[in-house]
Every structure is written in structure tokens, then in C-alpha cells.
Write a structure and sequence with these properties.
- 2 copies of one chain form a homodimer.
- The first copy, chain A, is 0% helix and 49% strand.
- Chain A is built from no helices and 9 strands.
- In chain A, the strands form 2 sheets. In chain A, strands 2-3-9-4-7 form a 5-stranded antiparallel beta sheet, with no helix packed on it.
- The two termini of chain A are 23 Å apart.
- β1 of chain A pairs antiparallel with β7 of chain B.
Amino acid sequence: MSNIFNNIPSDIPNEIFEDIINTKKLRIERIVSKGQSSPETGWYDQEENEWVIVLSGFGVIEFSNGNKISLKQGDYLNITAHEKHKVIATSTDEPTVWLAIFY
Amino acid sequence: MSNIFNNIPSDIPNEIFEDIINTKKLRIERIVSKGQSSPETGWYDQEENEWVIVLSGFGVIEFSNGNKISLKQGDYLNITAHEKHKVIATSTDEPTVWLAIFY
């Protein structure tokens, strides 16, 4: 057993991406952000669908159609493959823990 | 966008199982318990692997080898297919929200 809030460093100069499960069928990833936006330039344009939930902190996702969605604790979203998006803001006060399921 | 903690009734006479995503490759399910154990008799003996995380409350899972694992907020566990298990306790004070990924 592990805890999703464990092993979060006090300094987070760069976003942290960690696989929890990685099989052919799906990948479960923990992402920890603190003030970062990503990717640095352009958009995420992914081969896989992504279901993502914010477990602490908050983040704002922008889509290429201009929609901006702010996610706080417990908010979740399904991003279909090739739906271009980026993270334009995350909390600077506390770590934002995202759980992302790629499938 | 939805929130995993929304639409939790104040009375939970039976556990609530709801699909969030259901495709051929995976199923994401929210389970809400309040004091229940499950299944009523016997064990869960599943065809699929299950990755499960507790998002509020707590629950205790027993395995057929006698191991008992207590999960509180943020604790997660991978249960492989056909690993017999059951939930022997959940919080009676507050709803326990489980997020389960079957793959």
C-alpha cells in the first residue's frame, strides 16, 4: 500500500511525473505541480485518452478552442486523444496533485 | 467537469457503485460506502485487475490469505485479477469514497 500524498518534496522546481501503473492497456500517473504551467510551449496532443482528477491544490487547463477549465480538489475531466490542451496555471501555495489515467 | 465528492446522498443504506468511464479497455468506478462491508457473503473474485484509492473516509480490505489492509485518504492498492478480497469495514462517521480502476 502507498499513499498518493507521500513523497512530495518541499521544493518543486519542475513538475514531477511518476508512473504508478504502466501496462499495455493503461497508465496511471501521479503529477505534482507547484506554480508550473506545461508544456513549456505549444499544446499537449496525445495519442491516448486521459481521465484526470485533482486531489489537492488546483490547476487551470486551457483547450485549443479557448475554453479554460479550473479544477480544484475532486474535480475530474476526460480529455479525448488529440484534444489539444495545456495547463496554464497551478497553485503556488501548495502542491497540486493530479491523478491521470491514460487509456 | 464533475466532482468526485458531489451527489453523495446523506442516507447511504446500500453501497453506491457508479461508472465514470466504461470502455473495452478500462472502467473507472466511484464507490461510496458508509459502514457497509461487501460482498455480503464470500469474496470478490474478479476477472480484471483493480487499482483502488480511498479519497475520503476509510476502509479495511481483507485478502483470502488473512491479510487485512486499512486504507485512509490517499492510500491506494493494486489488486490483481482473481486475488480474492472483501471489504470488511468502512467508516460509519462519514462516506468513504473509493475510486476504482478496473483494467
